[in-house]
Amino acid sequence: MSLEVFFAVLAAAVMHAAWNAMIKQRLDRFLSISLMSFSMGLLSLVCLPFVAVPQGFTWFWIILSALLHTGYKIYLIRAYDSGDLAQIYPLARGAAPLITALAGVVLLSEVLSPMMAGGIVVLCLGIGLMAARGGAQFERLSGLAIANALVTSLFIAGYTLTDGIGGRTAPTASSYAVWMFAIDGFWMALFCMMMRGRQAFISVLPEWRSGLATGALSLGAYWIVIWAMTKAPIAAVAALRETSILFAVLISVIFLKERLTRWRSLACVLIVAGVVALRLG
Q: pTM for this one?
């Protein structure tokens, strides 16, 4: 992985952690994620005149990805509603790079160096430890919560592989990302209307500034990831992106004054070791 791609994906991870920290707590999780999705869709619509129109089979990947992104958000909300946020998020995100790596090797014949493969495993172990010891114990998570988190990870792996393939077939990464998120924003708005009705849109209006900020960060972060997957193995980019969990911990310790336990410290060390291995690989 080149230095340019490496630092770009790390920047995307920081942006990903930032929008997670910025989501307003007084809105429920469904409305918070829906507002962010609306904003990403609106920002994408503004950008449409400035990007190329995808051609041919690229549209299949764009539509499939938008469906998978919407499914991911729906199951992430379900997982949050059935378990502890501090554990559900790392569990859902931590399993995804391993699934993506295996699928990339089997389905796309991607070749990972031993160092890269080892880095992915170590990074996922660190994320798993963060989930297991980050707060409450796993015993407190219901089977439903774990199932929802793992289904979420399947959606993450699915859209990651789809975007890795689709981004390579599109005229540019920008074209693919903008069109995909425009469609995803429309479908998420439709789903929100079906679930909550017009009242949902009235409820989120006071938070429009926050929605635009989180939407811009999320759109920018994932655009970088799509671009990176056109330059480096999908599995390596997917794993490196999950360092957002490490940056989320740093934000919580520095700005929210949360305690850094020995287990969280060990998890951070493993994540950093995995990142170094990915860079050297």
A: 0.86
